[in-house]
Amino acid sequence: MGQARHKEKNLESREPPSPETHGAPSEDAEAGAPVAWKKPEGLSRRGWVVLAAVILCIQFPLIHYALFRGEADTTTSVPYSQDFSDPGVVKRDFFSTGGHWRVVNGQLLSPGVKNNPLWLQAKLPRDVAVEFDVRSESQEGDIKVELFGDGTDHASGYVFIHGGWNNSLSIIARLDEHGTPLDALQRQARRVAEQNGGKGAGLVETGVFRKDTHMRVEARPYPVEIGRTYHWRIERRGSLLRWSIDGKPFMEFDDPLPLEGKGHDRFGFSSWESQLFFDNLKIEPL
User: Fold this and answer.
1) Contact, 233 vs 129, CB < 8 A?
2) Which helix H or strand E contains 60, and what residues bound it?
3) Residue 240: CB partners within 8 Å, gap ≥ 6?
4) Does a structural domain hold residue 99?
5) Across the strands, what pairs with 227?
6) Nearest 10 degrees: CA dihedral of 257, 262, 264, 265?
């Protein structure tokens, strides 16, 4: 019984909780409680300046190239022929901004270069014929070359694609392989002509087609066969581009405002993801 009285005495001797702490969470409880999310503070003005300076320094070579680059180099001339028996010809006569272009077994290999053309460093005349052999070793087909470009940039001129978009479509593109289809531009021109009382129904007369218009001509003649070698011939006489494969007409485009002169005088091989082999290139003025 004495022990019981002693225990009660100890309980009575404890101090009651103060009003300030009664009902308040303990420090241990607060440590385990989740902290409310707060939006981080944005960069200060000085921080933005520093970030901009860093980006500028990193991108300076590209900015300088874009603003101050000159005409593409010229190391050879037209007429030109090449059978790619010499692997050194890639560095000697051509230029590319990317892709492991190389000669393999006497053929030029384009191993899926993601639209980084291999440009021949020769100026083309306005009227010219370009011929070569080509083979695709990919199910996608997607054989492509560029003509009357600037010798540096993809889609700076005309792009010729056989079996693009998973071997479903062939095009002659002007400045953009994803440009507006020609038939859509023609419909637009007809609508404009109707609004103008039927006067000036042409693409240029209606203002639908301009010097910088990005467009393409579409066709679906036949897909690319894997492993088959095709012989291409592309020529321009005046404003008319004609493209034949294996001696038969394939596609054509009469450009009302032809791309010509400086910045539109180079030829290049290309590819996207397909593995292509090119051979027996021949370029002659017409």
Assistant:
1) yes
2) helix 45-68
3) 252, 253, 254, 255
4) yes
5) none
6) 130
E strand or H helix at 94: strand 94-95
Number of structural domains found in the chain: 1
Bridge partners of 142? none
User: Residue 46's pLDDT is what?
Assistant: 82
Write out the two tokens for 40. 């981080």
* Amino acid 57: pLDDT: 74
- Token readout for 46 is 């000085």
Return the CATH number at 144.
2.60.120.560
Which pTM value belongs to this model? 0.77
Is position 194 within any domain? no
Distance CA 272, CA 110 (A): 9
Q: Three-state secondary structure along 148-209?
A: EECCCCCCCCEEEEEEHHHHCEEEEEECCCCCEEHHHHHHHHHHHHHHCCCCCCCCCCCCCC
Residue 156 domain boundaries: 80-179+214-285
Tell me, yes or no, whether 72 lies in a domain. Answer: no
Question: Do 193 and 199 form a contact (C-beta atoms < 8 A)?
Answer: yes
Measure the CA–CA gap between 228 and 133, rounded to whole angstroms: 10
Q: Does residue 198 lie within any of the structural domains?
A: no
Question: Could you give the CA distance from residue 117 to residue 159 in angstroms, rounded to a whole number?
Answer: 11
24 by DSSP, 3-state: which? coil
Residues of the chain with pLDDT under 50: 1-15, 19-23, 28-29, 64
pLDDT at res. 243: 99
Q: Are strands 266-270 and 143-149 parallel, antiparallel or unpaired?
A: antiparallel
Smallest CA-to-CA distance from 199 within 184, 214, 188, 189 is with 189
